[in-house]
Amino acid sequence: MPELPEMENYRRLLSQHILNKPITEVIVNREKSLNVEADVLRQTLPGARIIFVERRGKHLLFHLSDGRRLLLHLMLGGLLFYGTEDQRPLRSTQIEIVFGENRLYMMGLRLGYLHLLSVKETEAALSKLGPELLDRRMSAERFKERVRGRRGALKTMFVNQTVFAGIGNCYSDEIAFQAGLRPDSPVQGLGDDALGRLYEAAGTVLRNATDIGGYMEMPFMEGDTVTGRYNDRCLVYDRGGEACYRCGGTILKEELSGRKVFYCPDCQHDR
């Protein structure tokens, strides 16, 4: 599932290519991905423009020129591609937003969605999301205050979007590795030093992953050499059975609360 770095990479690229271009057509191949009837989009979006693209956690918000919002969540397997019909990948598309010759293709929305909302509806839809670790208002002390008193495993806390928005399976494991902590470490057992390492690790991992395009498997458009470069930089995620880059131990793949988890038992500890 795309996480904060992947969605921020998409936001940056979309902001370079679709802003203030008139929407000429909307194609809906899967009406279940919408919160309104397909005809509503087909009739009301042509002629409108996207004036701003915002990201909140794992969501993208397209600010429309008429004041409404399109709220996109790719969920598991969702991808975006921007280009012409000749350039599009050989994948089924659920929604296409047409900007003249080019189109924004939304693919893999088996669980994902695109909702047309008012400003008030958008605020309500995102109201339960927690703060983001890269927010300029976040600090080590605010992080520690939010974590202290919580129970359960470190990974379970990180993937809970009401605690911190934007982190999922991949980056929770990468952050834990960077901090030298096991992802199944009990949060309530972490001391001040461990929490400080965790906060620093989160900032380092999320910034680095965002700067090199996250781990998406498909380019955003032809000529895109940024998207997906983090895929080969993961230190533990999806590397079960391989050697740890830090200590040479063997990375384990296990399951924690129904989620796969990757860590090195030799150099990651519970505090």
From TrEMBL:
Its EC number is 3.2.2.23, 4.2.99.18. It catalyses: Hydrolysis of DNA containing ring-opened 7-methylguanine residues, releasing 2,6-diamino-4-hydroxy-5-(N-methyl)formamidopyrimidine. Keywords: DNA damage, DNA repair, DNA-binding, Glycosidase, Hydrolase, Lyase, Metal-binding, Multifunctional enzyme, Zinc, Zinc-finger. Its cofactor is Zn(2+). One of its GO terms (molecular function) is 8-oxo-7,8-dihydroguanine DNA N-glycosylase activity. Residues 235-269 form the FPG-type domain. It comes from the Bacteria. PROSITE patterns: FPG_CAT, ZF_FPG_2. It holds the Pfam family H2TH. Belongs to the FPG family. This is Formamidopyrimidine-DNA glycosylase. It comes from Paenibacillus spiritus.
